[in-house]
Amino acid sequence: MIKNIRNVFCVGRNYVMHAAELGNPIPDEPLIFSKPTHAITYMTGETVQLPGTLGEVHYEGELVLHIGKEYKPGMQVDGIVDAFTLGIDFTLRDVQSDLKKKGQPWLKAKGFRNSGLVAPFQAFPGVEKITEISFSLVQNGIVKQEGTASEMLFNLQTIIDYLGQYYGLAEGDIIYTGTPAGVGPVQDGDKLALNWGSDELASSTITMN
Length: 209
Ligand code: ZN
Prior knowledge:
This protein is α+β, with helices and mostly antiparallel strands and 209 residues long. It has one domain: Fumarylacetoacetase-like, C-terminal domain (Fumarylacetoacetate hydrolase, domain 2, Alpha-Beta Complex). Helices cover 19% and strands 35% of the residues. Strands 1, 2, 3, 6, 7, 9, 10 and 13 form an eight-stranded mixed beta sheet that branches. The chain has a five-stranded mixed beta sheet with strand order 4-16-15-11-12, with no helix packed on it. The longest helix is centred in the last third of the chain and has 11 residues. It binds zinc ion.
């Protein structure tokens, strides 16, 4: 299903092995950034255009939650999340490294057009089921990333409470919950697919210029 999207929150370094592969310390509270809604594109078979002249663009396959109602303290994940999907948090990695060195915000590396892909949403099956099934990102037929929500440093309830208390959460907000290890660069002509268990939720062909 295609749902309206309001605020776009993303969790950084939420899988220990991914923080390690980029040489980043493990955070002691959720590391949150956001993307403009203009960055978000549904994966509906259209070719996706990414910047090709600003250094490496990395894929980050992620579990994405859709919020169904306004957050109130004490709410459980199953009570506030109404849908989920998989998405790709594209990152201009060289730009991000430069921003980190300068101590500047990540927006330029994380907020460009098409930097947030989402497969169509599925009905939320409950937090227990969600943490049982593994998801993967497949690049040109090769599995590059595989993870399950059970490996997250900050679990879904912690993320919901953290975002709800600090920033507010309400209907239409979505959350990219972080990426497992195995991130890498995309090339012009790549086909990227997102699998939930053995089901392909969506795929896109990439062009870069
Ligand atoms: Zn990410």
